[in-house]
Design a protein that fits this description.
heterodimer; A: 260 residues; alpha/beta; six-stranded parallel beta sheet; two-stranded antiparallel ribbon; globular; B: 71 residues; mainly beta; three-stranded antiparallel beta sheet; 1 helix; 4 strands; 6% helix; 31% strand; flat
Chain lengths: 260, 71
């Protein structure tokens, strides 16, 4: 049945607005049908051929873990908003088989650190972590979040209480809040490693190990002996173990009729 | 709230005058997210890659310090 009401057409017609040339969306280079031309126009060279992602992806966490606060420029940081989408991409890309997490961090934001740790823990693909140099404070939950964790012989993990440096705790509630934050970290560590809660608390509040502070520095095999990290090793060991986990996963998949 | 071994006065110095603010921004280049700064001649210079793909770090065009072609 023909529509006779002309107002219907007026409504359906898209408003003809001349778009100013500068408002034209510039496609990101390397994407879209004219990717090559766009790349030559923008960069003076053709875009590289589309590539397959490497089967093993590597996430390096360095410096301070930056979360809700932008830290002053003297700090080298790993930003939460960069890491989280990368982890999502790794989880959803079918060509990616496993993730290697390399840590050399002094700690940082509790919530950002725990968020990254929870993301690594809940990825369905095999994950292996390797602590090089240092995996201090909130770096420890990220190290134990992986399916299997390695620490280099000379690398250290500092376990210490959460505190507000230079801040006098005025009210009991502040103390309770700190205590709750600390419990979140402790709970994550004991749930994702072999360490006992009593042992972890003892290490955290030990005196005499750190200058002017309470806590413990675990060097290489110490971290394995207390059960926090699975094995002392380097890059070769970490990659070999990751490949082993990937092979196991592939075998499980092929024998599971639901997943085939 | 920070949980770190670095003392607060090191993270937050009393004055930032001594620390020149590094102007960084990130962009897509050769299909990879890169952090760039304004280098000599006002061109973008690669500071760091934001990629988890190890092969990206082998690309000679994506090495830190490389200047991006003007656009």
């Amino acid at each position: 049945m023909p529509v006779t009401d002309s107002s219907f057409f007026l409504q359906q017609q898209p408003a003809e607005q001349p778009t100013p040339p500068e408002a034209k969306p510039v496609p990101a280079p390397g994407r879209g049908p004219n990717a090559q031309i766009d790349s030559i126009v923008q960069f003076g060279q053709p875009a590289p051929p589309p590539k397959m992602p490497s089967e093993i992806q590597c996430l390096s966490i360095v410096g301070q873990i930056e979360g809700h606060l932008i830290l002053p420029p003297n700090n080298k940081t790993t930003k939460y908003e960069h890491v989280i989408p990368q982890l999502v991409a790794i989880e959803q890309n079918k060509n990616i088989k496993g993730l290697l997490v390399i840590l050399n961090t002094v700690g940082g934001d509790i919530e950002a650190g725990l968020a990254i740790a929870e993301m690594i823990e809940s990825i369905s693909k095999p994950t292996v972590s390797l602590v090089l140099g240092g995996g201090h404070s909130i770096g420890a939950p990220i190290a134990v979040a992986a399916d299997y964790s390695f620490i280099a012989d000379t690398a250290t993990i500092t376990i210490h209480p959460i505190r507000l440096t230079g801040f006098v705790i005025g009210v009991p509630q502040t103390y309770e809040y700190l205590d709750k934050m600390q419990d979140r970290v402790i709970r994550f560590l004991i749930e994702h490693s072999r360490i006992e809660e009593a042992k972890l608390r003892e290490l955290m509040f030990r005196t005499g190990d750190l200058v002017q502070d309470v806590g413990t520095v675990l060097i290489g095999k110490d971290a394995v002996e207390v059960g926090l990290i699975d094995q002392v090793g380097g890059l070769k060991d970490a990659l070999n173990h990751l490949e082993l986990l990937i092979a196991q996963r592939e075998k499980e998949k092929s024998s599971d009729p639901v997943l085939v | 709230m920070l949980y770190t071994i670095v003392p607060a006065h090191v993270i937050f110095p009393e004055q930032y005058q001594g620390v020149e603010k590094q102007q960084l921004w990130s962009m897509q280049y050769r299909g990879v997210e890169v952090v760039v700064q304004r280098g000599a001649g006002g061109q973008a210079e690669i500071v760091r890659l934001l990629s988890t793909d190890p092969n990206d770090y082998l690309d000679p065009m994506l090495q830190p310090g490389m200047t991006l072609p003007a656009f």
